Amino acid sequence: MSWTFFREFLRNCQNTGAIAPSSQKLAETMVTAAGVAKARRVLELGPGTGAFTREILKTLAHDAGYLGIDVNSMFIASLRDQFPNLHFEQAEAQHFDYSSFLIDGGFDTIVSGLPWAALPESIQNALLEKIFSVLKPGGVFATFVYKGIHWMPRGQKFRRLLKRRFPRVELTPTVWENLPPAFIYVASK
Ligand SMILES: C[S@@+](CC[C@H](N)C(=O)[O-])C[C@H]1O[C@@H](n2cnc3c(N)ncnc32)[C@H](O)[C@@H]1O
Q1: pLDDT tens, 91-148?
Q2: Of 72, 20, 73, which is closest to residue 51 (Cα–Cα)?
Q3: Cβ(56)–Cβ(36) below 8 Å
Q4: Among 80, 66, 68, which Cα is nearest to 36's?
Q5: Which residues line ligand 1 (CB under 6 A)?
Q6: Fold (topology level) of 22-188
Q7: Measured CA angle at 75 (ends 58, 90), to 5 deg
Q8: pTM for the complete prediction?
């Protein structure tokens, strides 16, 4: 249990969207599904306390670029301490101006820890439009969802929006070694 994470959940449960960070097994599955190893430019949305970031850093090519965006200033301060060689910005991902990071046509892969099922449809939509616009053609957008929550109304809305926006959406097997168990949508542009 990460106390920073749990405290931020108590402070703002909608944005934090979970009581505990993702597990090592989910992080490994995420980094593989998103194709981080062969990416030149990686965007991470909602890194939180860095569960996926640690695994991204292990896998990222030494000359590849990384940008992490989280709305929570406590998380951003801790991420900057933990990963001094990676670049983080505190912002709402749907409103951030990505223009100075869009070298060579955009990001090859976008790894997301965003809490979709906790977000209203208007924000889900704004985020997906932004994500699609900054992803390179042929790029991958990978985002996890908790098993079961994906059948709740906001989870279903997200699934419909994702399938409407991206031509191809695949699912990884469920990662049971996570609290709660989760799987990953892997959407290709
Ligand atoms: C469920 S936590 C995931 C944290 C981490 N990736 C993990 O898997 O343990 C969701 C994260 O998304 C961030 N977040 C929520 N809405 C956001 C938004 N609109 N833009 C950027 N970050 C956001 C929260 O601050 C939080 O760090």
Answers
A1: 999 999 999 998 888 999 999 999 998 899 999 999 999 999 999 999 999 999 999 8
A2: 20
A3: yes
A4: 66
A5: 15-18, 21-22, 45-48, 51-52, 69-72, 75, 92-94, 113-115
A6: Rossmann fold (3.40.50)
A7: 100
A8: 0.95
